[in-house]
## 1
Amino acid sequence: MIGANGVQVPSKTIWKGVGKERIDVENPNPGQRAGQLHYQGNQGNKYYYDSISNTFPDAPKKVNELLKDSSFKNAIDKGMKQYLGEK
């Protein structure tokens, strides 16, 4: 279960883009409920990160293209390692 070895965090923004876009990490109950990372766009659309495919599967192409941006990718890596306890 993702986040089982992570720290408890209700919700934390770990990256801010243009306007309201951001990446949040949530791990409210480590080991009991899976933690998650999601991208939220300017229109309020929320897309969940899949750590197996390293993509946002249901997101538009432009969201997944952000994975090429080093600050965006570093924020995901930070969320996975520092908050969710994943390698």
## 2
Amino acid sequence: MNIVVLVKQVPDTYGERTLREDGRIDRERGTPALDEIDERALEVALRLRETAGGEVTVLTMGPPEAVVALRKALAMGADRAVHVCDEALAGSDALQTAAVLAAAVRATAAPGAATFDLVVAGNESTDGRTAAVPAMLAERLGLPQLTFLGSVAVDAGIVTGLRITPEGTTELCAALPAVISVTEGSAQPRFPNFKGIMSARSKPLTTLTLADLADHGLVEAEAGGANSWSLVCTVTARPARAGGTVISDDGTGGSRIAAFLAAANLI
């Protein structure tokens, strides 16, 4: 089985994260890191490869320094990496990101290269939080989509997963090829070992530009911040956390707690 995993370099969630005046994330502050949810997506792919064989390719769209995230993914066990890097991509929204990634998947699966059975992504990045790219990518590729999965299995050309929500658990399935996204409840990612770190240096890492994707279905107007379909108009800082409510139990504590939770729509 040949699998593509979408990964992204994001500001470390444990560091300081700020926005620029134009509403975009200031990526020069803080420590960049491979997104945690993408590590889980990669782990899902690696486990599928271990049982079914094949190859795992990690794919990212980002600035030159995003190569660091790709190297970590290679050290974790991915077989090869593809980096879509072009200055014109700065400021791309989810719609444009999906268009570029779809073209990159097609380019990576061009004649002479591997064809792909499965595209795996995290359900949402920790910086953008749109949770839209996997579904948009599936639409672009004309493939079925199974999103927000907590577990994944593949057997006899069928991918199956469990989507767990507050409303209940749903079992989903689709014939391969397909696009899936996984949640924080999926596989716990492995740590790169010394052998993996050393071997990552010699694994293939291909860089593509927008010009390279022109022959794979990407229209110039679909890429780049200048053509973005969405615009951040204003940004407001998160309000400071207010103090909690203290309820002393004078015999009515239980009912008062229940009333408090009901007022907050928590029960």
